[in-house]
Amino acid sequence: MEMTKGLVSILLTAILTNNYILAKFLGICPFLGVSKKLNTAMGMSVAVIFVMALSTAVTYPINTLLVSRDMEYLQTIVFILVIAALVQLVEIILKKYIPALYSALGIYLPLITTNCAVLGVVLLNIDEGYGFVESMVNSVGAGLGFMLAMFMFSGVRERMEANDIPKFMRGLPITLVAASLVSVSFLGFAGIIENIFS
Amino acid sequence: MAEKKSLGKEFSKGIIAENPVLRLVLGTCPTLAVTTSVSSAIGMGVAASIVLICSNVVISALRKVIPNKVRIPAYVVIIASFVTIVQMIVKAFVPALDAALGVYLPLIVVNCIILGRAEAFASKNPVLASAVDGLGMGVGFTVALFLMSSIREIFGAGTFMAGIKDLLAIFGDVSFNGFSVPFLNENPMLIFLLPPGGFFVFGILMATVNKLAESKGKPRAELRGCEACPMAKNCNLHSCENSSKEVNG
Amino acid sequence: MKNMKAKDIIIPALALFLICLVSSALLAFTNSITKEKIAQNAVETENASRQIVLTGAESFGEVSQRENGLTVCEAFDAEGNVIGYVYTSSAKGYGGSIGVMIGYDTEGTITGIEILSHGETPGLGANATGDKFKLQFSGKSGPLTVNKNSGEGQNIQAITAATITSKAVTSAVNAATEDFMKTIGGGNNG
């Protein structure tokens, strides 16, 4: 029970209060870049969840190995290479064996290698000292939080299209101000988390 | 003489005309994340600049040796090595900065500015020009972070450069430890330090820069969906092209 | 033609391998230089924090591990008498784990606390590192609770708009106090 409660707490924190985009500012490029249409935003998010979970599953044992050999200093370099290789591998496998899934997700995969949210979640799992199950839950939570932020923001942007925006604010500035408002709404979750778990 | 002039140009373009953050809209993650205080913003700027200059020099020196096929992984390895070296040096000599930057220090690896410059400049230009390009872009990045963090810290905390003492500790004992801004110090507008404040200040800053650029007859800075991404050339994605067109159009 | 193809694969792979090799060697070298300095920094910060939470202590004994990730060490005065204990503890805050160091006198009264590490929001939870919050703990003993309005008695007044952080720090302190009572305090009082 205690264990489940801890895991649910990690999951909700990663999705809502510590949202990787809106609170930790990781993965801002796709957040601003591919959030203009709902379906592209969702495709990107599913691919991110998938890669985050996979990278965590693969880097966790590698990190244990590095720590046991006293070579923690190789973490960054090893992780980024593993993530890059993994993304390539998944792309090749999907293309060959599951073309349907490839046509849905494959196109987003190469962009994810340089997405700082993926490397971020792997490094933060280690910083927090999470075990394997906790790390996986945190990664999936981070991915779901990414999806939630993308989902909300693409809705906001679709509406913004039709509005008459002052000329100097058009484009990126108004997008950032809108992101600021979405971020304010996420601040409200702090109280919810606090009252569920105390 | 001509050579000197062009080097000067490589340097200065990074600061104003092609400022990586305010004009090319790269490296947005650290720009938003570490700008809650001026001292950590300067620290991030300097750390990223060092990595940028070193990786530019090495990549430029090896540009004829690295096979084209494994270009990107090779760049990533080189960049990651310099990031780790900088990280270890920071941990050893400026522990306060390591604590302030946290996970954003190793995340310099995926800062698009660095891989972007490697691909766009260092892989095609001689060593000296690449070093100067790296320096200019680094200074431009630092200037942008400084602007953002000054606004956020002054309004959000009522201080300016608080904690700079720990950063300057490597140069010996410095007594200067920032200013406190009257009135705002007692009544800080906290929202500027919180995540929404980061997005808002960045938005306003972009609007101002765009306005200035337009008055000089230069194009506005636009978020470039995919062509800003260093991986863009490797992905012949129709959706990628579409998304960047959407953003630009 | 076939030979060409093999060359096309081997040369890039070899180049990448060489780059990785040189990089790793360079990192190992830097690590060997900075490792000691980093370890020394950690020890120095820890000692400095210990002095803050338990003023008057001249030296500290060996650190021993307790359950739930707590650590404890004895503190001695100039004559070598035990004058208190220093615990380190941690709890999950708003932005990740918060590391706390707590000093006790021999009776189990808190002499001071120090925040060792945190990832709390600047301007809100990060205010836990300020004296206004930390000094509330000094002189208190036994289990503490967080209260939004008052810091009297067994209460700790929460930091404005950062209740989660305040609760996390308090629960880290309580965990250490509980262990103190169970092991050291219990032993002394029979």
Characterization of the model:
Chain A has 198 residues and is mainly alpha-helical. Chain A has helices at 2-17, 28-33, 38-68, 75-97, 99-105, 109-112, 116-127, 132-160, 172-187, 189-196. Chain A has one domain (2-189). In chain A, helix 3 (38-68) packs across helix 7 (116-127) and helix 3 packs antiparallel against helix 8. Chain A is globular, with a radius of gyration of 18 Å. Chain B has one domain (2-223). Chain B is built from ten helices and two strands, in the order αααααααβαβαα. Chain B starts with a helix and ends with a helix. Residues 233-249 of chain B have low confidence and may be disordered. Chain C has 190 residues and is α+β, with helices and mostly antiparallel strands. Chain C is elongated and about 80 Å long. The interface between B and C is medium-sized, with 30 and 25 residues.
Key terms:
heterotrimer, B: 249 residues, mainly alpha, 10 helices, 2 strands, 61% helix, disordered C terminus, C: 190 residues, six-stranded antiparallel β-sheet, 3 helices, 23% strand, elongated
